[in-house]
Structure formats: structure tokens, C-alpha cells
Design brief:
Layout (H helix, E strand, L loop, with lengths): L1 H23 L5 E6 L3 H17 L2 E6 L5 H8 L8 E2 L6 H6 L18 H6 L6
Parallel strand pairs: 1-2, 1-3
Length: 128
């Protein structure tokens, strides 16, 4: 159950970011994704390849342990060396938003019907 929820949350995060990549990223020809090494990284790589074929935007996957990502983003993000997409447990969401490390995706531009209600709720912070 936990693994299934984690996969749904990862898919939601990746889907949301990839959906808005052309308008959200500074470099419209490449997105950097941090994911733990292992099966999850391989899945993200495969999805990235499909996205690249569809859009021409290159998805560059870097293996970074999920629990290390918030601290790494806090250090690397302000220097312009952070990831465009991060994949970590949803319980880190509030802390990283408060630190100014994550950007809000406006619901008006999202098709939330493509995601389960629990996945959408897991990605909200203070109702957004």
C-alpha cells in the first residue's frame, strides 16, 4: 500500500511538472529530475524518454536519494544548480514550500480528473 501510494504521488508530481514544463522552466529545452536510484529512477527515465519524443524537451535524470533532496535543493537551488523536478515523500512538502524551494502550480491550469483524489490532496499545502 505504501509503495503504491508512493508511485501514485511520484507519478502525480512528474505529471504535473511535465505538463507545465514549457511554461515553468527557465530552459525550455531541458528539465533536470532528481530521483533515487533503482526501479523508480528507471521508470522516470523511461517516462522522460517518452516525454522527450513528444515535446523535444530533454529530461535529464540524476540519482539523488529522496530523503537528501530537500537539503540538496536548499543548497543547490539558489545557486541555479537544483532540479526542476524533485521526487520525495509528500510529508516534506510544507517545509520546502515554507523555505521557498517549490513553486505553486495553479489548479486552474491543471486537469485534476487525471489523478486520484488522494494523490491530489497529498500534494496540497494550506489548501493549495
Amino acid at each position: 500500500m505504501v509503495k503504491q501510494k508512493r508511485i501514485v504521488v511520484m507519478a502525480l508530481l512528474l505529471g504535473l511538472v511535465l505538463l507545465f514544463a514549457p511554461t515553468l522552466c527557465l530552459s525550455a529545452n531541458k528539465l533536470v529530475v532528481w530521483e533515487s536510484s533503482g526501479p523508480e529512477e528507471e521508470w522516470v527515465r523511461k517516462m522522460g524518454e517518452l516525454y522527450t519524443k513528444e515535446t523535444g524537451i530533454v529530461i535529464e535524470v540524476h540519482p539523488v536519494d529522496q530523503l537528501s533532496q530537500p537539503d540538496k535543493l536548499a543548497l543547490d537551488g539558489p545557486a541555479g544548480k537544483g532540479a526542476d523536478v524533485v521526487v520525495w515523500p509528500h510529508d516534506k512538502l510544507g517545509q520546502t514550500i515554507e523555505q521557498g524551494l517549490l513553486m505553486e502550480l495553479p489548479e486552474a491550469k491543471l486537469d485534476l480528473s487525471k489523478f486520484t483524489g488522494s494523490a491530489v490532496e497529498a500534494m496540497k499545502y494550506q489548501g493549495k
